[in-house]
Fold this sequence. Notes:
Elements: H1 3-22, H2 24-44, H3 48-72, H4 80-100, H5 112-131, H6 137-140, H7 147-160, H8 165-170, H9 174-185, H10 193-227, H11 240-249, H12 255-263, H13 267-289, H14 292-306, H15 316-329, H16 335-355, H17 357-363, H18 375-391, H19 395-421, H20 430-442, H21 449-456, H22 460-482, H23 489-495, H24 505-512, E1 518-520, H25 531-544, H26 555-561, H27 566-575, E2 580-583, H28 588-596, E3 602-605
Parallel strand pairs: 1-2, 2-3
Amino acid sequence: MNRLVLRPVCVLLVALVTSLVVGLPAALILLGTACLRFATGRTLGVSAAAAWAAAVVLEIGVLLAGLMALPVLGLDILTRPAAAVVLLLPVLVAAASLLRARVASEEPTPWLDPTLGGICIGVLAAAQWVQQKGPGTGVAWAMSGDARNHVLLARGVIDDGGLTLTTLRHYPATSDGVAAAVAALGGRTGRLPGALLLHDVNALAHSYVVMAVLLSGLFACAVAAAASTRDGSTLLHGPGPAVAAVVASVLPVTALVSGTALHDGFFSAYLGLVVLLAAVVLMVVAVREGSGPIVVLLASTGPLLLTVWSVLSLLVPPAVLVLLPRLVRSTRPKAAALALAAAALALIAPAVVAVNHTELAAAFVLPGGLTRPHEQLLTALVLLTAGSATLAHAPLRQRASLTLLAALTGGGVVLMALAAVGPGPARWQYYGGKTLWLVTASFLWILVMPGADLAMSRRRGKGIAAIGAAALGAVALAAADMSTPLKNPLQLAAEGWDQPVAADVPALRRFGDAGTPYIFWHWSDGSTYTGEDRIDNFWAVAAWDGAAPANGLDPVRWGYESSGDPQQLCTLASAVPGLRVVTRDPKLQADLVARCAPAAPQVVVDS
């Protein structure tokens, strides 16, 4: 079949599968990315890996522009046509680019696109496998940690009609805007409170899945881009690079990457990882292809990261500075203009961070629970990259390694500054530790590169050295995974998660749809107030809060921070008329009548 016909058919097939698993709104994000990939590849004549990374950056950038345009134009994201336009905007931009631009020659990497298609289907199959395990399994894994805050933040974007400059100045809310667009296009009007809550949670979960697809593809693209510089050649020999790319694409389901993200509810940081990884791919391909537009796109990831995860934006300028001299010396037309544009874009992020350094410093001393930072793994990645730059025989591979080393060094400087902000021996506070995790995860694919070199090696000595490096990389990755508290996140999600457990999700909807305020007490085990009760109460209160003002009491904060003291329950009952207390403790009614009279809440014993 003609390649021009086969590609659209494959894209539509993947989009159909995506819509069946995560719904049409989320599928439009992947469809827009695929359309932008082909538009970028044809108009710029860059490799498939470069085109995919550029497409991810453009997709998120166009979505951000659409979300910001809605309030300016007086439109409301809550209306489904407005949400549809936002999610379809990248497709329209890609179509316009394909119609107007001259077709440039695209580097033949015939194995990458079908490989990425298979990776996409694999991620979606895993998501479908989890969803089919029983009621609540499809969303319980997306309701722990900070994910609870992101549902409220996405609802805030909906209330504002879109993303505003005020919102972005106070919080990098692009990820919440994406979840808000997915929720709005899915239809929010006419739903009962419990159903509406789960609808918004599903939008968050579906956005997570789409980000996982993009992450898997970008990990594969990073290996493909680096492997194609072997011996200065753009020709790939044998199945080695494709196998290495598929191996790298599995990284998002490890405990270190998605396990950490899901355990702590890192929704915003997860999208930040997508953008940063796209920037890393662009760093590698910019060295090999020397394309001015690619360097400009790389520089643009800095300002984009400001709206996703601010401090990550500081990793981009060092890499751009390494690439600029080559672009300046280029004899190609418009090279000087592109170099100037790249330099200007690269300076935006440091300038914004410098202006807001006081607020950032205050944020980075905030305490919070987080999995243990992996300083040793980041050090291993730096050493491995430096070794590649030293030992590589191909000049292109050396320059690629030096560019990555510049980004890693810049990231190391930023991380040391963040760690120094922390008080005393507890150097890594919440945001510092999370940033360390993001930097480490975005360069984790480097551990796969010795294996890729081995697969393509034709010299015995080099092969033995690559085996040793690959073994060390595997040991480092295994050690990092073992140090995380969440083992095998995919299996745990399929089994029903931990807090909240999947079995509680139908109850959240059932009691929420009754339309009156409620909370859980002695619910998880019937005799005491547990952490499971607390996370359930957060979601319970999120379903009804707003319709029932609590006289200055913040029910959402109460729902998550309550300690189990019955007097706290009496305080909430007096502030929220008609409050129902759902329990499995048959003695609770008498206890509350004695303790909370005359404002004792209604008790519902649920078996």
